[in-house]
Write a structure and sequence with these properties.
- The chain is of the alpha/beta class.
- The chain has 2 domains: about 190 residues, Glycogen Phosphorylase B (Rossmann fold, 3-Layer(aba) Sandwich); about 180 residues, Glycogen Phosphorylase B (Rossmann fold, 3-Layer(aba) Sandwich), CATH 3.40.50.
- It has 15 helices and 13 strands.
- The strands form 2 sheets. A 7-stranded parallel beta sheet has the order 3-2-1-4-5-6-7, with helices on both faces. The chain has a 6-stranded parallel beta sheet with strand order 10-9-8-11-12-13, with helices on both faces.
- Helix 2 links the parallel strand 2 and strand 3.
- The longest helix has 16 residues.
- It is elongated, with a radius of gyration of 21 Å.
Length: about 375
């Protein structure tokens, strides 16, 4: 089977990171994998290099803008003369451009699209409904990464219901287990933290409208002075949050780490991992944090609330008191933290990445046999 994956770029999002981990697994199963990036300027260099080292063929269109129709012409030029049995597309606007590029071609491979989020900026805007309906119907199968994603898409475009299949995203538990914690003393020195025994809270997330860093920042105001928040990530709202932290007088206790490739090591080093978000698809960060062996607290929102063992792991974005109380309890009650960590490890085994890959491969083969 010749399989082409198409995505906007290999940036710092969860869908991109998941592809980097899974494409070599598909190839090991005997599938000939090619990855096409519409852009490429926002790539994480380590991601692209790692795929090439694993023998994955990676191509870039280097589109000037992902949102210009000229991207369709570039896609047509790339696809001309090539034969793929199946094309798997990820994210918007790639999901629009691929069917348009194939429309006039004799070779019509089977098309799969993965819907990664429970909501997006198009859903709910009446003028996008007919456009989305047109493009979703171009795909032979649509993978929803959770039941909530499936339900949201079914409400938005009801007539694609029969094409949707739910396959949960996964994480590579074997790889995560092999990563050692970061050196805590070195980390404290790097961040200039001088407290004798500081309590470290990590949130790894992009600074954009989907995430809710403000809830954690506001919560820190209510916590003792030896509590420190580490924010790993980049994004369009980062500068605004940095300014907000300065205005609150919390600059010595909130540390902006930027984009980190050692997030898992950091997760294993801090005292608690937190993800405050407005919505998720199936949060890879949540799964990684649950597998870290460190207590995790996540916002009670779609994409997180069904991805944790129980209510102990959840808080309301609108209630800094609830989040603060749960963080304090984890510091004061080590038995609670240990029990939550053990329960999380048992829970997250259901999301081991080989199960996801096997489900994808079964879907691919079923489509190519039709």
């Amino acid at each position: 089977m010749r399989l082409l994956h198409v995505i906007n770029d290999l940036g710092r999002g969860g869908a991109e990171k998941l592809l980097v981990h899974t494409l070599p697994m598909y190839q090991e199963s005997g599938v000939a994998i090619t990855l096409l990036l519409l852009g490429g300027t926002n790539n994480v260099p380590e991601y692209e290099l790692g795929l090439k080292e694993n023998g994955i063929e990676v191509h870039r269109l280097n589109a000037v803008s992902l949102y210009r129709l000229s991207t369709v012409k570039l896609l047509k030029q790339f696809l001309a003369g090539k034969h793929y049995d199946l094309i798997h597309v990820h994210l918007f606007p790639a999901m629009y451009w691929l069917p348009l590029a194939l429309s006039a071609m004799k070779s019509q491979p089977r098309l799969v699209f993965t819907e990664h989020n429970t909501q997006n900026r198009r859903w709910g805007k009446f003028y996008f409904r007919p456009v989305d309906r047109f493009f979703y119907r171009k795909y032979h199968k649509i993978i929803a990464i959770t039941n909530e994603v499936r339900d949201g898409l079914t409400i938005w475009v009801p007539d694609v219901k029969e094409r949707i299949t739910v396959i949960n995203n996964g994480i590579d538990l074997k790889q995560l287990d092999s990563i050692l914690p970061a050196n805590k003393a070195a980390l404290l020195q790097e961040l200039g933290i001088r407290d004798k025994d500081p309590f470290l809270i990590l949130m790894a997330a992009r600074f954009d409208r989907q995430k809710n860093h403000r809830a954690l920042i506001e919560t820190l105001k209510t916590l003792p002075s030896d509590f420190h928040v580490l924010l790993a990530g980049e994004g369009v709202l980062k500068e605004a949050y940095e300014q907000h932290v300065q205005e609150l007088g919390l600059a010595e206790r909130i540390h902006f780490l930027g984009f980190r490739t050692d997030v898992i090591a950091l997760m294993k080093t801090v005292d608690v991992n937190v993800l405050s978000s407005n919505f998720e698809g199936l949060s890879g960060v949540t799964l990684e944090a649950l597998a870290s062996g460190v207590p995790f607290l996540g916002a009670r929102v779609p994409g997180i609330e069904k991805t944790v063992p129980d209510e102990r792991f959840l808080f309301s974005n609108n209630d800094t008191g609830e989040l603060g109380a749960k963080i304090i309890s984890l510091r004061e009650n080590k038995i609670l933290g240990k029990q939550m960590s053990e329960d999380a490890l048992n829970f997250v085994r259901a999301f081991d990445i080989p199960k996801m890959v096997a489900a994808h491969l079964e879907l691919y083969h079923s489509l190519t046999r039709q």
